[in-house]
Amino acid sequence: xxxxxxxxxxxxxxxxxxxxxxxxxxxxxxxxxxxxxxxxxxxxxxxxxxxxxxxxxxxxxxxxxxxxxxxxxxxxxxxxxxxxxxxxxxxxxxxxxxxxxxxxxxxxxxxxxxxxxxxxxxxxxxxxxxxxxxxxxxxxxxxxxxxxxxxxxxxxxxxxxxxxxxx
Length: 167
Known about the structure:
By secondary structure, the protein is mainly alpha-helical.
């Protein structure tokens, strides 16, 4: 898809889907016991908690970058909230992303966002690529979480696929 076809409305829809899918996942996470939340499971990250924190950290730092905050915080490895605090923070960040996208000027989509990577290197890329990455990244790791939930013995999961959302 060429960026000219990626309209603000398209990203509002992706942001709304992201809120919906994260809410679905958070409803399942809320049902986990402490052992399931922390259970070592081999994936991109070592537990459900670490995977959730990675998504939170990514949504948070991209929000900070999109807001052009001078100082950004990478939460992975430093955030130590409870499971309920992880869930609340994740839902809050997703809602903030949706709000930010809804308030964007459509003309900014093709303009570069200049930011510092986690390692401090300066970088830039068009806003439409940033937004596409954010929502794709969350989808990728939500898929991992569903597999991890099943491996932890929680099988009452449903679909967070965008087709399910559209239906």
